[in-house]
Amino acid sequence: MDGAGRGRNRVEPAQDPTLPLALAHFAPSYRKGPVDECGVFGIYNNTSAAHLTYLGLYALQHRGQESAGIIATDGQEMYSHRNMGLVSEVFDEAVIGDLKGRSAIGHVRYSTTGSSVLGNAQPLLVQSRRGSLAIAHNGNLVNAHELRERLEQEGAIFTTTVDTEVMAHLIARHRKAGLEEAIVHMLGEVRGAYALLFLTEDKLIGVRDPHGIRPLSLGKLNGSWVLASESCAFDTVGADYVRDVAPGEMVVISGDTVRSTQAVPSQAPQQPRLCVFEYIYFSRPDTDLQGRNVHASRKEMGRQLAREAPVAADVVIGVPDSSISAATGYAEESGIPYEMGLIKNRYIGRTFISPDQEGRRRGVRLKLNALKKVLEGKRVVLVDDSVVRGTTSRHLVNLLREAGAREVHMRISSPPYRFGCHYGIDTGDTAQLVAVGRSMEQIRDLVGADSLYYLSLEGMVKAIGTGVATGDFCHACFTGDYPEPIPEGAGKFAFEKGGS
Amino acid sequence: MDGAGRGRNRVEPAQDPTLPLALAHFAPSYRKGPVDECGVFGIYNNTSAAHLTYLGLYALQHRGQESAGIIATDGQEMYSHRNMGLVSEVFDEAVIGDLKGRSAIGHVRYSTTGSSVLGNAQPLLVQSRRGSLAIAHNGNLVNAHELRERLEQEGAIFTTTVDTEVMAHLIARHRKAGLEEAIVHMLGEVRGAYALLFLTEDKLIGVRDPHGIRPLSLGKLNGSWVLASESCAFDTVGADYVRDVAPGEMVVISGDTVRSTQAVPSQAPQQPRLCVFEYIYFSRPDTDLQGRNVHASRKEMGRQLAREAPVAADVVIGVPDSSISAATGYAEESGIPYEMGLIKNRYIGRTFISPDQEGRRRGVRLKLNALKKVLEGKRVVLVDDSVVRGTTSRHLVNLLREAGAREVHMRISSPPYRFGCHYGIDTGDTAQLVAVGRSMEQIRDLVGADSLYYLSLEGMVKAIGTGVATGDFCHACFTGDYPEPIPEGAGKFAFEKGGS
Amino acid sequence: MDGAGRGRNRVEPAQDPTLPLALAHFAPSYRKGPVDECGVFGIYNNTSAAHLTYLGLYALQHRGQESAGIIATDGQEMYSHRNMGLVSEVFDEAVIGDLKGRSAIGHVRYSTTGSSVLGNAQPLLVQSRRGSLAIAHNGNLVNAHELRERLEQEGAIFTTTVDTEVMAHLIARHRKAGLEEAIVHMLGEVRGAYALLFLTEDKLIGVRDPHGIRPLSLGKLNGSWVLASESCAFDTVGADYVRDVAPGEMVVISGDTVRSTQAVPSQAPQQPRLCVFEYIYFSRPDTDLQGRNVHASRKEMGRQLAREAPVAADVVIGVPDSSISAATGYAEESGIPYEMGLIKNRYIGRTFISPDQEGRRRGVRLKLNALKKVLEGKRVVLVDDSVVRGTTSRHLVNLLREAGAREVHMRISSPPYRFGCHYGIDTGDTAQLVAVGRSMEQIRDLVGADSLYYLSLEGMVKAIGTGVATGDFCHACFTGDYPEPIPEGAGKFAFEKGGS
Amino acid sequence: MDGAGRGRNRVEPAQDPTLPLALAHFAPSYRKGPVDECGVFGIYNNTSAAHLTYLGLYALQHRGQESAGIIATDGQEMYSHRNMGLVSEVFDEAVIGDLKGRSAIGHVRYSTTGSSVLGNAQPLLVQSRRGSLAIAHNGNLVNAHELRERLEQEGAIFTTTVDTEVMAHLIARHRKAGLEEAIVHMLGEVRGAYALLFLTEDKLIGVRDPHGIRPLSLGKLNGSWVLASESCAFDTVGADYVRDVAPGEMVVISGDTVRSTQAVPSQAPQQPRLCVFEYIYFSRPDTDLQGRNVHASRKEMGRQLAREAPVAADVVIGVPDSSISAATGYAEESGIPYEMGLIKNRYIGRTFISPDQEGRRRGVRLKLNALKKVLEGKRVVLVDDSVVRGTTSRHLVNLLREAGAREVHMRISSPPYRFGCHYGIDTGDTAQLVAVGRSMEQIRDLVGADSLYYLSLEGMVKAIGTGVATGDFCHACFTGDYPEPIPEGAGKFAFEKGGS
User: Fold this and answer.
1) What is the DSSP string of D444-486?
2) Do B347 and D55 touch (CB under 8 A)?
3) What is the DSSP string of B158-203?
4) Which residues pair with D38 in a beta bridge?
5) Helices (H), D154-290
6) In the predicted model, what is the mean pLDDT of residues B298-327?
7) Which of left, alpha, beta for A428 (phi over 0: left; psi -120 to 50: alpha)?
């Protein structure tokens, strides 16, 4: 989904040429699986609006480590600060102090490629006839390219490569009618996944796409209203979870009231078709999605995996940190003891200097170490939540064997990952996905495991909760079954990398 | 001309609260007089395009120290890097290396207020139907507010507060007709001062406003064409000066050719109505403007000043660095010896820690020291090129007296500065100008000098060169005689601070 | 053990005044319990000596996050680089490249107070008559003050406040006799805990104190010899563990040989009296100490704790990361399910901006979040490896209760911590230790738990391994039973903070 | 004088490989001629001691741009801060605030080579039996090597490579007798040039070498006493110059009193044999040395040069900034008009990226530009204060010719520079000095000038002042006539680079 677009604003990051591939694969900002692109947080009517947004972004940092931004308003002016880096790096006390006012929205963004330019950092602040508008967006539009082309034909110009700007243009086209109406108009034209926050001098608005693919929840903190990608952000700021924003719903917070309208007809009659990867990998274990705890769901996936793919073994281990939940579930269900077999170094910096051609192997060892005493002579079940290119898996299996594991049985707590995401997840080049064009046996052989099993789609869904069916999720990355048709060439659409 | 506009994207810079006023007045990025807002540089068809642009910006650094940026193209893609800071801070070798291609434009920007946000750094890179377009702008539009309002009514959105974006919108409105035609269209709508560089994947275009208020010159470096705000940049990159771009002229460099068209009818039939402050203060002494050397003109202003305002004295001194030329001219004409009476500390950093309430006085002493041996018991002529608020002058006169000067006669090599600039110069609050609402005697009294004289407008013009009349310059800051009517409320126009 | 000494070289760190206490308590470089002061790594005869030392320090980063340093030699010159910060911050490729040669030693250092000055960073490089000598030291001398006083009387001067310099002086006093003899002489005079690495142009020497309080191991990497504080560093560089350096042993690596001598008579006839806190908290779980895996020992401590202090409960949780091992042991032994009840935010930066007086509570929530779904209505066993001041414990108990825990039973997998360490651990002010002067009931009340139990000393030792007795460890922090008499006033000795 | 010593603590700085030689020659921290190594400042009994020391170092920044440091005392403790960089970079308000107390000393240091290590930054803080002692040193000992060897034989160790540490050891050897006595003892053993400041908890002491080679002056600021390398620092802090410290004098400031003793017999019966390069180049123009203003002396050197080496020419120009004084003197005496023929770019950063092999030529042009309008067709006298390797001169002559100069006559306002300095000036490799082994004609040919003359030694001394003879200065760099015999091999002595 690389930007094959015209005239991209692209500066290759000054990459450390010595950074071994394996390390890139283990870099601190790296998240082994596919990567979610953003987290959003907003608060209305709080004297510490920017401060609390800062804390909320801290809690959502796992959703994006590339850039962070906050826009606040005191009802008169909009105050903005965005920069590349972690929340802890982008903000300091003086900056937070300058972000005045009682309302604010914030954004953390992830990006894997050259498009990591500051200009694309969010929230986006645009000014048009009806005043200022700040927008924070998690998701991706599948028809952004088409819309952008039309807008350009109508004379629009773009100063960023994120599709958030496309939405801003569409809103401006109808702004005369009032902001809410203009947003509804815009939503009528865009297709895709989005959790959106809008901030004006006097309103905070939250919108979720008609399928409910990306998560967005509403919370309350004393007299303040809060919107966030994940409920863990509510816990961090001390807010109470109220409810999820519904598919196609627009929540308008203004003055003392919260109004809700169905901005676009819901396409998810039962419940949101939430991205199933939020359960598998993206969300924090302490987040509740649709009332279900993420850690609990992951653990249940591990249990289900044990039922579907039992194996005679001595010990179950998980890849830290994200697969520990599933591994403990597998252990409990199978009765095979869970053990801490891999230790993660918590101090890995952003870059790493490789002494030699052994870099890749050393990179893995620098990040993770295998516990010989735990593994020696053992038949090991290695639980991982997903496999992307297979390279890391191969190194892990090798690491375990070198530590003395007699057998290594890989168990993946999600189905084979085979299709690109069009809804805001950077899946890299799908051609490189290990599960594309390979049989299970070939994958097993490639990673070097004694056996390899993936959790079934049905099993995964069952694990998430009772009362849900596969149709209640977006699982296109496993099945290619996208909630709505993907326009011809959408993969190439993204002028940038298709996400924001 | 402060932005009273709606919804400004404003973050107060984290100012050092201890920075004494006097020091702010002497800060390194401070330029005592009114400040020019930008310098531009462009090169076409050179294998070291970004490198040479970097060198060119180095030479133009005096025109703006707030932010710097370069956009380069290899004919396929546009590569951009912009950041806050000096050229030497913004670019390093890796960054320059990433700015690939054979053409590039660059920009240095100055700003004194809270609008010093990265989002306003230039060149601006916009994308529209017909491809990418990078724009670097020195100047200011007087009808930007009006245009912006119209564009917003038509549905345009703005992501920066610089009027460059207004121009980008106007171009996009007519892009179908071809870029050059679209630029001509845009120029037909904007009014004000501008030296503009445009870069596309295959063209470099330079345009100068119909009055020729801001400078722009064309040079040649072997097979490459170069455009720059000042000729000193040509010397630095080793290019030869070819000629000034004429008022209203558009120079289109493409392939092997340079084509020239009169994009807007010239409003300066004789010669450009160049901003007279370029001669007085802004331009580097080694720059030639309209074929006249800046240092030579300044020296002649000093001579003329000596003719207009002679005084019996023992020594002539100038305020370093910008007034040295005029001071030597005064000395030569008057026969009074020129002396180095004030020594400037070359190592002043951006901030300064004041130990106590004496900060202001110490700030002056930290930056400048008076040479007692030169001044003791002497009647001193102190030549300065301009006086803004008068505070610095008062401190300087005091410094000289403490060093033993018996008499201090201030001689200013330009007329009293009384009117705001609408053409790209930040004049601050005109109400604070010392010459507004004060008689000469009151000003003299305020700065504490024994006598005070300003150079006459006619004398100044005469000094600049033969064959020129006052009508051949923009001298509105002295006379209020703007080249064209300023729209009602233009002072409030600038959504930002009116410049870019 | 705060430095009450004369004329300390003390600069208060520029602390963020907004950093709430609770956060300081949860700061990223913070390690909840007492803190180990250093890790050392050395390698001899390897073409990537500095690179591998860098990797080794990465693996030992948990032992000290304040400063890092490497000194390398090519047999002719010594090349040194030290700075404040994490390994990933202190070194980049250029720096590593400048650290030429085939041998190197490195050091990571922790410090909690104002003495965090660069001058104290290690390794120390001294030059004397017989050439250069680099020293890296983990530990603390109990008679440093006395020795320093004597040396000063003899005319010695000190440029740092670390007792490593005392050792350097003592060595220099006898250097004529040869380096090894001089080291032996020095060892005859110092008393305390130390793991020492020495590097000269042609030798790498490792020494361990006669009690074997601080750990030091020998490894082999192809033709190179390696010395490190913990065996996990061997895994990271791909070396094989050979053996622990014995109490009082000096290992001299030179040319092709490794020679071993008993530099000082061992005071630990059976086995090293290793600091028991290395098992409880300091060492990485994947490190093997004296042939016993640290994780396994901790898990066994949890089992033993379950035997000693069983409780009727629904779930066992541990404080991440260091107490997870013990918590799983407790769960396995008790049959109560282990659960992930606390989630740690992995992205906490070094500073944190508190919005208000709620800072302390928010600080805890920012760092750790409780899993409501896991805890609601449950009787919870909270396992922690140690309690220092009790503040964090109180916040944790409160966090669990707010998340719905019906009962909270604290179980500490080590005995009450009551005595200051004189062997290189920063214990802060012993008067602030929660276990000093309080009954168990008072502590329980203070932390707000329903019940509270500490593991017994005997239980702890039993958990570490068969064949060991309490006399086989230094457990003075629990018992006050120091391996050797502490000189009167040693607590005040440390000119600096007693460690290096 | 490069360190050929054993075991140097040497880390090559991460140099920009693209930095062209010519640029290194024009780098911002570069000072064209030989470089002075240090500036010192001290203040006693002032509530803003650290703040004022900071300002004083600002004024002395031209004497050293590599590192800066301040040590302050509140009578109980010593507070220290040192780092690499300019004064404005090393200190911020928080740091200054931490440097508590009413007395302080500061130091700025220059170094050109790899020995630019932080460990060598000053002031040095040592602790010995009698308490803390901070030392700031400008100068160089000629017998440091010999002393260091002796000290090492006696068991001393060294943690830096500056000879200040040698002095610290010698003082410690006799500290029992009291600090002043110990200093006198030390002074009896060292030979060379030094301006020394010592700070203890209750005293500030200043000492100057028996020849008075390096400058040191005493000033008064209300109730506070001030010591500084140059009087310009007094002006900056608002202090009054009292007198120079005499050769061999020790000034002890303590309580309310200033006591003076002849610590070592003066070797300069008439007046200090001050380094003549302080007049030529090192000191700031606004400094008074021995009651003579530096600018005035330089101007007189220019006059004398005009008398000794007149030439028929149209214009006199100087190399900015240091040669402007001499150039105006030459112009006044010769009657040939002085002109600003070279313009210096004030914004050159520390590094510079060269686009290509043309780097050297571009480097010169980036830093300096020639004013064509001033030079075209003219016979030019180019006045420079000294010539080191001749490379810059060649580039300058070429620059002038390219700007149209018809003839270029170089006039150097000092004698040919042929001998290395042993007194604290980094002269680089004397073999590279253009005047070594070349006739005047050969030098002229090498730099490409039409004529070339150096000022005579007698003429130079005459210019400095009446009543002085050549014997009243150290002019060894011109004559090889060192104030005292230089030990065999002193050039190689310096373990570091011979200076501090």
Assistant:
1) HHHHT-SEEEE--HHHHHHHH-TT--GGGEE-HHHH---SSPP
2) no
3) BSSSSTHHHHHHHHHHTGGG-HHHHHHHHHHH--EEEEEEEE-SSE
4) D109
5) 164-173, 179-189, 232-237, 276-277
6) 96
7) left
pLDDT value at D303 more than 90: yes
A232 tagged catalytic: no
**DSSP codes, C224-269:** EEEEESSTHHHHHHTPEEEEEPPTTEEEEEETTEEEEEESS--S-S
Query: Which token pair is D173?
Result: 């050897």
**How far off is chain A from B154, nearest CA to CA, in Å?**
7
What distance in Å separates the CA atoms of residue C387 and residue C370, rounded to the nearest whole number? 19
The lowest-confidence range among A105-114, A280-289, B99-108, C154-163 is: A105-114
A355's CB contacts (< 8 A; 6+ apart) are A362, C48, C51, C52, C54, C55
Q: Cβ contact (<8 Å) for B235 and D362?
A: no
Residue in chain A nearest C292 by alpha carbon: A373
pLDDT tens digits for D313-356?
A: 999 999 998 899 999 999 999 999 999 999 998 887 655 565 55
Question: For C286, which of A286, A288, A369 is closest by C-beta distance?
Answer: A369
In the block, tokens 């982008």 appear at A90
Residue D65's pLDDT is 86
Strands D257-262 and D249-254: antiparallel
Q: How far is D9 from chain C (nearest CA, A)?
A: 6
Active site residues of D: 38
D237, B358: Cβ pair inside 8 Å?
A: no
Q: What is the pLDDT of residues B334-381, one digit of tens each?
A: 999 999 999 998 887 655 565 554 555 666 678 899 999 999 999 999
CA B351 to chain centre: 22
Q: Are B234 and B49 in contact (CB under 8 A)?
A: no
Chain D touches chain A, with at least 3 Cβ pairs below 8 Å, answer no
In the sheet with B407-412, reading across from the earlier edge strand, the strands are B315-318, B379-384, B407-412, B451-454
Cβ pair B229, B63 in contact under 8 A: yes
Q: Rounded to two decimals, what is the model's pTM?
A: 0.83
Size of interface B-D (CB pairs under 8 A): 172
CA distances to A136, A227, A228 from A39, in Å: 9, 11, 8
DSSP state at residue C279:
I
Query: Does C6 contact D128 at a Cβ distance shorter than 8 Å?
Result: no
Name the nearest CA neighbour of B248 among B268, B231, B275, B228.
B268
Q: What is the residue type of A5?
A: G
CB pairs under 8 A between A and C: 170
- Let me know: does C450 contact C401? Beta carbons within 8 Å: no
Q: Which residues in chain C are closer than 8 Å to D94, comparing Cβ atoms?
A: 14
| Residue found by looking up tokens 């009292």 in the block | D242
Whether B340 sits inside 8 A of D295 (CB atoms) is yes
pLDDT tens sequence across C450-487: 999 999 999 999 999 888 888 899 999 999 999 888 87
Distance from CA of B82 to the nearest CA of A (A): 9
Q: How does residue B131 score in pLDDT terms, banded at 50, 70 and 90?
A: confident
Whether the predicted pLDDT of C338 surpasses 50: yes
Rounded to 10 degrees, what is the CA torsion of A315, A316, A317, A318?
Answer: 180
Distance from CA of A11 to the nearest CA of C (A): 22
- The residue among C384, C412, C414 whose CA lies nearest residue C399 is C384
The better pLDDT of the pair A155, D198 is held by D198
Question: What does the pLDDT look like over D40-92, one tens digit per residue?
Answer: 999 999 999 999 999 999 999 999 888 899 999 999 999 999 888 889 888 98
Contact A206, A196 (CB under 8 A): yes
- What ipTM does the predicted assembly reach? 0.85
Q: What is the DSSP string of C165-225?
A: HHHHHHHHHTGGG-HHHHHHHHHHH--EEEEEEEE-SSEEEEEE-TT--S--EEEEETTEE
D457 touches D472 (CB < 8 A): no
Torsion angles phi and psi, residue D31, rounded to 5: -120, 120
